[in-house]
Structure formats: structure tokens, C-alpha cells
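[job 0412] stage=fold_complex status=start
inputs:
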Amino acid sequence: MTHTSNNPSAIRSQEWLMEALLFLLEEKPYHKISIKEIAEKADLDRSTFYRHFNSKQALLERYLDSLAQEYLRRLEAGENMDMGKVAKIFIAFWIEHIDFIRVIRKNDLDGLLLKAFNKHLPSIHRLTKDKFSYSMNEEYMEFALAFNAGGMWNILMKWVDSDFAHSYDDLLKAFEEISRFNFFR
Amino acid sequence: MTHTSNNPSAIRSQEWLMEALLFLLEEKPYHKISIKEIAEKADLDRSTFYRHFNSKQALLERYLDSLAQEYLRRLEAGENMDMGKVAKIFIAFWIEHIDFIRVIRKNDLDGLLLKAFNKHLPSIHRLTKDKFSYSMNEEYMEFALAFNAGGMWNILMKWVDSDFAHSYDDLLKAFEEISRFNFFR
DNA sequence: TTAAAAATGCAACAAATGTTGCACTTATTT
DNA sequence: AAATAAGTGCAACATTTGTTGCATTTTTAA
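[job 0412] stage=fold_complex status=done
writing structure:
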């Protein structure tokens, strides 16, 4: 089991392992990256890997979670958030991590990424709670928020699959067009 | 590489392997199911597995694709399709496969499932093409369709995560509520 | 500064993975 | 019916995986 630790050695090792995985992901498919290889790239013994993570996926999930947290910090930094601003930050964030999301999608790992981000949906809800012009039953708001998040996500994936054929402005325009029929603005 | 074959032996083997995987998925987590085990359950040699599939994931994807095709057949069977009917068929379909989708979600394999279904998005678009009351640029319709599909999907996932705490009617009502703010009806 | 706690490297292990050559059986073609 | 093609089982192989005990180093606490 992975225990949270403050020990400098432990933190350093975990960071090295994450960096090693990210480096290797640029070179070869996820499923061909062995734990042996990750440990070697991180200059650590293989057993040390297993003392921190149960699996390659657990290591990746740690990084995905840190990404989601960074995204949330971006949202929290904004003022007077509405869904339009959320969309802007969302798009800008992923343009910034364009290489990573390409690799994630190519290796069919986007489900894990969405899961990591969905974990923070309640926080996002809280941030934007008072900015909507809903006339919707509160009970269905949860569903609506999930619908919206999933929709934005799938568009992001579509954008990745097109090999980023659209600009920041294209994507933003698309969100605006959709939002005219949707509950966010 | 997996070559498509009509040979009865080959088809039979592939079916046995798929059935074996589905059976084992009910018993233990995906990542703990070994290929050795799948082959044994299917009464086949391990080498036969590799002659048909490159990996456990390739085997699963074959089944996911067959599921997506079945779903598409359901849609095609309907007449005068609009998005409300699509939602009904969507919900009914997954209630029918409730055990499978639970297992898929629990093992973080829903990304693969969405991918299999997204592959058929163009066909769904074609089915419902003339039934919308759009006032939307055709260029953005692709985005809107992707948004809609991703949204419905994320609600499905939310439903699974709640351990199916909502009924067919609850889900349908949620879609209707959302659609009042959305481009489909 | 010293003692206790935590993390690491090394080595060994059983098990699973991915691949291949060969003999044999099943299916298709002529 | 015979010849060709395709699929299977068996066996062997190098490699990776996941796990653990023990000695050594690094970090924390007294």
C-alpha cells in the first residue's frame, strides 16, 4: 500500500519515478514501459518502486491528481467565475499541457484523467455556484454539472484526436455556440 | 497482429476467450486476471491466445466494439429518432448491461468503452440529422454532438458510481431537464 | 550528538509474459 | 478425394513482475 510520507528521501524518489514515467511516455507506448525501466531511469532499485506504488497505473494516477489540483488552483485564482471563464481556463490549461494530453489519449489513458478531474467537480461546482442563471431543480443540478463536464471533456478529446487542428479561439467559439443552447454562459 | 478470419476454429476460440474474460471479470479485478487464466478458462493453450490477440486489452476491446454495434442496431431499429428517443434507448441499453458496466467502471475501463462508442458517433449523427431544430452553424455541430455524447456518458458514469441509485425514470427526467437548456429535445 | 525510525540497495524467488519452431488436427479448395 | 491452407497444442526461452529478508544509509527525534 502507498503510504503518504514527508520523508525527503521518499518524496525525492516518488518525484524521480514520476519524471521517469513522463520521460518514457514521450518515447514509447505506455504498455511497453516496464517498471524495471522506470526504476532504472529514476536511478532507483526496482524494489523501491514497489515500496511507493502498487503499479505503473498508481504512479500515473498520482501525477494525474497533481495535474487536477493545479487546474483547480487556476480556477480558484480567477474572480467572478462563470462558465465562460471556466471554459477559457480549461482550454488554456490543456494547450499548456498539449504534449502530455496527446500522449495520454494515444495510450487510452484519458479515462483515468477524466476520473482524476471528476473527483474535483464538487469544488468547481462550489466556485461557480452563484453565477448561473438556473431555472433548474437543484436535484438535477448535479446531473447537469456532470453533463457539462463530460461534454467539455469529450470536445477536448475530439480536439486531441484532430491533432489539435483548432486554435484556442476556435474552441472557445465552439463552447460559446454550444452554451447558447446550454445552461452555462 | 490480429487478422480477421472466417475460420470456424478461429471464431470459436475467440468467442471462448471473450466469454472467459467476461466470466473472470465478475470474480476478480481486471489487472489480476492473467492471460494464462483466460486461456485455461477457455480450454485453450496460452499460445492460442496470443495468436488471436496482442493483449488482454485487445480482447476486451473486441467485446466493447461488439457492444457498441449492438447499441447502434437498437438505434437503427427505432423510427423517427430524436434525441429524447436516443436517451431512452441509451438508458434502457445500459440497464440491460448493468452488471457489465459496473465491472467496467470499477476497473477504470470506461475510457475504452467510451472510445468504442465514440467510433460510432457519425452513424448516430446521420440517424438523427434531420430531427433537430438547430439554429447552429454546421461547423459547430460536430462539437455539439461530441459535447452531447460526452455529457450523456458522464451522467451514465455518475449513475454507476452511485451504485444505480436512480431509476430509469429518474435518469430520463434528468436528461429532459438538461435538454431544456440544451440543443437536443 | 546519539538513538530510533524510515528508506534504500541488493539478492533471491515463484509466477506471468510474449515469442517461436514443430508436429498434429481441422477446414477449405481444387 | 487429395492437396493446400489455417489453426491448435506442446515445449522451450528470455524477460518482467511482485514480493521479501537483510544489511546499509538517510532522516528524525530525543
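[job 0412] summary: Residues 138-161 of chain B form the longest helix (24 residues).
[job 0412] exit 0
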